[in-house]
Design goal:
By secondary structure, this protein is an alpha/beta fold. The chain is built from 12 helices and 9 strands. Bound molecules: phosphoric acid mono(formamide)ester and norvaline (NVA).
């Protein structure tokens, strides 16, 4: 599969076969890491890690992934660099393209990532925008495969909560790999029209405001915070709007008896998920966190390896 030089901005740009290729490569790299087999596949390369929002998992997993692949990494954030108000995305892209072999960026508007990719001569990887979080969803699919088997076709994914970057990328990723996808969110917090237009092409997509309908017979139940980064001023209104959208034992009771829960973290126990459901699913949730490392390695190898 030759994807060298491509960007990884959204799963919409990737075919089911390409997504499957990334998942299989991630599983292989994970097995190598576990058995101590070195995989310095990008020896001598360098990747920039740009953070305009905070991060624990994304920063550490990208840094470790780069190190394991034999790459250097350069961390840039908006307070300690010229990025943001002080220098345009276009100029930043052209400068970084002179030093580095790839750029990972976490930012606000998705247009910033698109702009960076337009001006950069090197692959750009989206590590979360207000609209999408494709690295996380590739990771979630890898984790679901580990728990439910390699064939994801026909499995039911339920997402309960905000129509945010996670829900948007899960709808696209889940439908592309052949899963049934059901999402429950209150009116006013639904996914944007471009995501609903994509989903409209699939019979196996359900949008509801009832978490019990979404979770019914689900193989995997997924949620995320009600207030994403950048929305802190809306917290009170969101807490009100999402009352009833907490993943609890009642909602899990209508899912399949062997259903797993996924949460990209950080989690707010008592808001989008109860302490009991979170802890009962700590295994798959922290496997999901670990898998960021392996999935992102697969992305960087595929886009950046000679
Ligand atoms: N899930 C995730 O992206 O976590 P961080 O915000 O800690 O990177
Ligand atoms: N929806 C969350 C995801 C965090 C990883 C946010 O954007 O803050």
């Amino acid at each position: 599969m030759n994807l060298k030089g491509n960007d990884f901005l959204k799963l919409l740009d990737y075919s089911p076969e390409q997504i499957d290729y990334l998942l299989q490569l991630a599983a292989k790299l994970k097995a190598e890491k576990k058995s101590g087999v070195p995989h310095r596949l990008c020896e001598g390369k360098n990747v920039a890690l740009i953070f305009e929002k905070t991060s624990t998992r994304t920063r550490s997993s990208f840094e470790v992934a780069a190190h394991d692949l034999g790459m250097g990494s350069t961390y840039l954030d908006s307070t300690g660099s010229q990025i943001g108000k002080k220098e345009s995305i276009a100029d930043t892209a052209r400068v970084l393209s002179r030093y580095l072999d790839g750029i990972m960026i976490r930012t606000f508007g998705h247009d910033r990532v698109e702009e960076l990719a337009k001006w950069a001569d090197i692959p750009v990887i989206n590590a979360l925008t207000d609209l999408l979080h494709p690295c996380q969803v590739l990771t979630d699919l890898l984790t679901i495969e580990e728990y439910k088997g390699k064939n994801l076709k026909g499995l039911k994914m339920a997402y309960v909560g905000d129509g945010n970057n996670m829900m948007n990328s899960l709808i696209v990723g889940g439908l592309k790999v052949g899963m049934e996808v059901a999402v429950a969110c209150p009116e006013g917090y639904r996914p944007p029209q471009e995501i609903l237009d994509f989903a409209a092409g699939y019979d196996c997509f359900t949008l509801t405001d009832d978490p019990m309908v979404a979770a019914k017979d689900a193989d995997v139940v997924i949620t995320d915070v009600w207030t994403s980064m950048g929305q802190e001023g809306e917290r009170a209104a969101r807490e009100k709007a999402f009352a009833g959208y907490c993943i609890d034992e009642k909602i899990m009771g209508v899912a399949k008896s062997d259903a797993i829960v996924q949460h990209c973290l950080p989690a707010h126990r008592g808001e989008e998920i109860t302490e009991e459901v979170f802890e009962a699913n700590a295994g798959p949730i922290f496997d999901e966190a670990e898998n960021r490392l392996h999935a992102q390695k697969a992305v960087m190898v595929t886009l950046m390896k000679d």
